[in-house]
Amino acid sequence: LYIDASSCTLRGHNVTSNDAADNGGGLFIENTPAVVTADESSTITSNSATNGGGVYVHLGEVLYRLMGGSSMSSNTASIDGGGVYATGSDTSVVLTSSTVTTNSATQHGGGLYCSDGAQLNVTQSSVVSSNTGVDGGGVHVDASSVLVDSSEVRDNVASGNGGGCYARKTGSSSSTVSIVGSSSAVRSNQAVNGGGLYLASDVSGTIRSATLGSNTATSYGGGVYMSGSVVVTSGAAVTSNTASNGHGGGWAAVAGADLTLQGGHTSSNTASQSGGALYIDASSCTLRGHNVTS
């Protein structure tokens, strides 16, 4: 489906086994104003493209919504964004009570890839799971923003960094990552560095009342790896994460990172080398009422 400056609603509709030589195997959405909604258990599955195996979204005020028990699964990208590729400062992708699962990208963002100011909201018990890519098995954020609210990012695998989510800046434009709500979790993801989250230089992160648990990094930061980034938590639980052959089972903060832990706890994390709970190297860390326990 090619949708240009138009609206389109899929209700109980399947978009399956399509291929695009360029971008957007299932749906290609562009130009202001465009609003596309997949609702009522619609499926976008087994599509392929260069970028955005399932959906490609760009150019202007463009909104793509996946909601109402709909799913995006088993789509592939030969470069970035196995499930969704979204780019542009007025572009939004909203997941509501939906799933993005078993998608893959040869490069980055197995489930979802956002760049150049795009906004991703994962809300209302949505799940991003079992996706694979190099950096960002579940989600790759490049100079963009992601909000996970009362939802889960789980069981994703990155062959590089950021099993659950990888975030970085490009030029002067930074990224923000927010994980909020007591039912939100980033869990059981795997990567080389940052099993759960990988936050590169100048990325801003907020973790409020959420759980980061049972993530694994083979090198640094089983739960979270942060390099020159700023993270503030409030009531977060960082538990049972592992750096299987390196440092910082729960947290690895390096290269001028600034970490503030308020309330909540870091518990039962392990590292084969230094810092079972926290590894702080040339960075700053403030703990306010935050318990670090075994």
Summarize the structure.
The protein is mainly β and about 290 residues long.
Topology:
Layout: E1 2-4, E2 7-11, E3 14-16, E4 27-30, E5 34-39, E6 43-45, E7 48-49, E8 55-58, E9 62-67, E10 71-73, E11 76-77, E12 84-87, E13 91-96, E14 99-101, E15 104-105, E16 112-115, E17 119-123, E18 127-129, E19 132-133, E20 139-142, E21 145-149, E22 152-154, E23 157-158, E24 165-168, E25 176-180, E26 185-187, E27 190-191, E28 197-199, E29 204-208, E30 211-213, E31 216-217, E32 224-227, E33 230-234, E34 237-239, E35 242-243, E36 251-254, E37 258-262, E38 265-267, E39 270-271, E40 278-281, E41 284-288, E42 291-293
Parallel strand pairs: 1-4, 2-5, 3-6, 4-8, 5-9, 6-10, 7-11, 8-12, 9-13, 10-14, 11-15, 12-16, 13-17, 14-18, 16-20, 17-21, 18-22, 19-23, 20-24, 21-25, 22-26, 24-28, 25-29, 26-30, 27-31, 28-32, 29-33, 30-34, 31-35, 32-36, 33-37, 34-38, 35-39, 36-40, 37-41, 38-42
Structure notes:
The radius of gyration is 18 Å and the shape is elongated. The model has no long low-confidence stretch (mean pLDDT 97). The chain is built from no helices and 42 strands.
- In DSSP terms (H or I, runs of 4 or more residues), the helix count works out at 0
Low-confidence region ranges:
none
How do the strands of the widest beta sheet line up side by side? 1-4-8-12-16-20-24-28-32-36-40
Give me the Rg, rounded. Answer: 18 Å
Could you tell me the strand content as a percent range? Answer: over 45%
How helical, in percent, are the residues? under 10%
Structural class: mainly beta
Biggest sheet character: 11 strands, parallel
Q: Termini, distance in Å?
A: 52 Å
Tell me the overall shape: elongated
Total number of strands: 42
Q: What integer is the average pLDDT?
A: 97
